[in-house]
Protein: IS3 family transposase
Organism: Spirosoma endbachense
Amino acid sequence: MKKCRRLIDNQASISIRTQCRLLGLHRSGVYYHPVPESEQNLRLMRLLDERNLNYPAEGVLQLQDYLRTQGYPVNHKRIRRLIRKMGLMAIYPKRNLSRLGQAIYIRPYLLKGLAITACNQVWQIDITYVPMAKGFMYLVALLDVYSRYVTGWSLSNSMAAEWVVDTLQQAIARNGKPVIINSDQGSQFTCSKWVDCLEQEQIKISMDGKGRAIDNIYIERLWRTVKYDYIYLSPAGDGWELERGLANFFEHYNNRKCHQGLARKTPAEVYCTPLQVDVESENLN
């Protein structure tokens, strides 16, 4: 749809009405310009993001109480709209946890009891909201579980499935492909574009159980590090500044930051792209 809108030419000899009809677009979509969030909403989103990082089980009413203590007596409907826009969801027991629902693209969780013993055996992928001084963006990253090495990342102003697939393909081109990729059950991962891409690459698909953030724990820890060590300390002024800052951060994270869980080595020291896991010998329990 966005590609079609870019084909509209105000200087063309035919009218905008005719161009829209030929492209299958509604004229209102051509003239409409999204209204950015207000300064106050951006401050609220920044507070909600940090609160969710520390207390992921808090729902809308608890977040409303928290914002009230911070001097923002806002309506619960406003909070619900903002956290949906940020892609946040509280972790709590839900009904019918044993049912996978109607989503035909949901896949089972494959990592339970699996011994992760090599690089490129298991990658994890996730998307997070990134606040800026004015506005916000979304960040997607892929993490090799064995080495904690960030194999790929990118920024976007929307959470489109195409963006996630492009980031994956770039990571595979640089580092080779993993045996398994684990994600949550977000709409970007429970769709034909994502599932078809992994099946074509012959990569096994693993997904968290609904509401189980600990299934993707390593990349959740990465988000905490990214936000507390860079994003919250130095809010970027725009997307270009944010991209440059994240490039420097991930270069430091991969090549200079030592991890106690890696015997005080850096992820780059542990990560070994040429070492691949024999798919046939994998015991997925």
